[in-house]
EDD domain protein, DegV family
Amino acid sequence: MKIAVVTDSTAYLTTEQYNDNQIYRLPLSVIVNGEALKEEIDVTNETYFDLMRQSEKLPTSSQPTLGDIEELFTELSTDYDAIISIHLSSKISGTYQSVASLGQRMEDIAVYPYDSGLSCTAQGYFVLEAARLVQQGATVQEIFEHFDRMQQSLKAYFVVDDLKNLVRGGRLSNGAASIGTLLKIKPILHFDEKQIVVFEKIRTHKKALKRIEDLLGEDIKKGYPIVSTIIHANAEEKALIWKKSLESLYPEVTFNLSYFGPVIGTHLGEGALGMTWVEDFTKLS
């Protein structure tokens, strides 16, 4: 069986990762001043935050259209027997549901949707692993079983400068937002049951990052190899400084750098920092 690997744009993979691993992308869009822009096609991470600052109101986001999904899947059906389609959390976007619904109606190709339960690089880990395993000849069932193992070690935490965007975009409750605004603290956020929730309440940004470092350290002690990624929302300099510090603190870990692109960056806001990590299966092969 020849399997295609598809994801949506919020995995924020590099052009090289898409091309080198034969991964296909479904772009989500941001709506800025009434204009829908497909992220990483019509608008990039480098240009988006200027647009966001100039926007009269907070931009919104939208999932891929059914037409875009069907067009890609139909195109893939000429060369592939099946599609593994990996997407951001179904609790923050309808993308997974749309893919699952359309997939049931596809006649010339089998579609296997996967709800990663989160987004960004953490979602991208599943995508890259799927591509690696497809190249090794793994079956769909074997790949999904591998995803279950990945979920056991996968962690993702982030800190935002302002919780208001998350609330206005419907991705965080007003009650959770009041924690940060009323008490003047920097809560650490994470995904729980596929939703963005407060993990811990921390007094300062510096202490919040230190707490995330300690959480990584706890997993390192478990003895398995780890790959980790620092993620930023138009705050590359801060992310690089943190990455350099982490590389010194934990030299046994492979650290990478990524970003919160337009769709996710809209909700987290400029300046957000995060870190995700997972067992590094490439070192076990």
